[in-house]
Specification:
It contains 9 helices and 12 strands. With 298 residues, the protein is α/β, with parallel strands linked by helices. The protein folds into 2 domains: 118 residues, ATPase, nucleotide binding domain (Nucleotidyltransferase, domain 5, 2-Layer Sandwich); 162 residues, Nucleotidyltransferase, domain 5 (2-Layer Sandwich). β8 and β9 form a beta hairpin. It is globular. The two termini are 13 Å apart. Bound molecules: zinc ion.
């Protein structure tokens, strides 16, 4: 039995999962934006899950937006959670619960989760992109998270995707793929097409009603995603792509445009065109499944 936690910018969620993937009820709580508050919320949610777990808990696995040095078990300088800078999460959990602790970047955990229980179940190689507030990425090679020699693993969201987008990325630069493909980028595209919506939530209704401005914005978004994917497949040569995060729900409206751009960009290198581009069946679960699989592998 494993306790799996996903610690995000504003929420913490978690559950117990056993080695066959059987899962308990998912507990949610909001995350106070202080170090003390985060510690307290973690203790409460982990105690809650432990008390409901039907078997003996062996390990705790926690996925979180980084960057985190997973070897040391500490946050580096998390752009969206500055209050957790240098927080030694592994020691904290070890001291409090006396259980072995595994830490992982949330997008990398999500990638592993998709081959364990998600849209790429049974595959051994995959690249998974989390499209939401940011652009998270995870690369899995031979069933293992690939991180090279980097403490936090690859950060494909910060690949340069060209000039023309003035918005600054969390890393301090402009032109990062994240600024072209995150939720704000899509919102800006919708506005630029003349459709005034206050929140991206309103976009779903416009799309269901086949609003031409919304449809056009999603096609343009798909084109950007296709450009981006044509670059990452050229680096990694991995033919299974998974999409997660909040924006993946809109894939039916942007995926064919992404595929067209991929086919065009790679027309002379057709072997690089991904065989599968699929959507996570449950983006809220991917990182939790991934933590479970990572602890099984340990
Ligand atoms: Zn960046």
């Amino acid at each position: 039995m494993f306790i799996c936690i996903d610690l995000g910018g504003s929420n913490i969620r978690g559950t117990w999962i056993n080695s066959s993937g059987l899962t308990g009820r998912v507990a949610h709580s909001s995350r106070p934006k202080t170090l003390d508050g985060t510690k307290k919320s973690l203790i409460t949610i982990i105690n809650d899950i432990r008390s409901q777990c039907p078997g003996k808990v062996q390990k705790i696995g926690l996925a979180s937006a980084g960057p985190m040095d997973t070897q040391k078990g500490a946050y580096l300088n998390p752009t969206n959670m500055p209050e957790l800078k240098n927080f030694h999460l592994r020691n904290f959990l070890l001291d409090r619960f006396g259980l072995e602790v595994t830490l992982e970047n949330d997008a990398q955990a999500a990638a592993l989760g998709e081959i364990f229980k998600g849209c790429l179940t049974g595959e051994t190689d995959a690249m998974v992109f989390t499209l939401g507030t940011g652009l998270g990425s995870g690369v899995v090679v031979n069933n293992r998270i690939w991180r090279g020699k980097l403490p936090a693993g690859p950060e494909l969201g910060h690949l340069y995707l060209g000039p023309g987008r003035k918005v600054k990325c969390g890393c301090g630069q402009t032109g990062c793929a994240e600024t072209w493909l995150n939720a704000k980028a899509l919102h800006d595209l919708v506005l630029a097409n003349g459709l005034n919506i206050i929140s991206l939530r309103d976009l779903d209704t416009c799309l269901e009603e086949l609003n031409p401005m919304a449809i056009k914005a999603l096609k343009q978004y798909g084109h950007r995603l296709g450009l981006y994917l044509s670059q990452v497949v050229s680096v990694f040569g991995i033919s299974n792509i998974g999409l997660g995060g909040g924006l993946s729900r809109l894939a039916p409206y942007f995926i064919s445009s992404a595929q067209q751009t991929l086919a065009h960009r790679l027309s002379k290198r057709k072997w690089l065109i991904p065989e599968k581009i699929c959507n996570s069946p449950d983006p809220e679960m991917s990182a939790l499944w991934g933590m479970c699989y990572l602890m099984i592998q340990d």
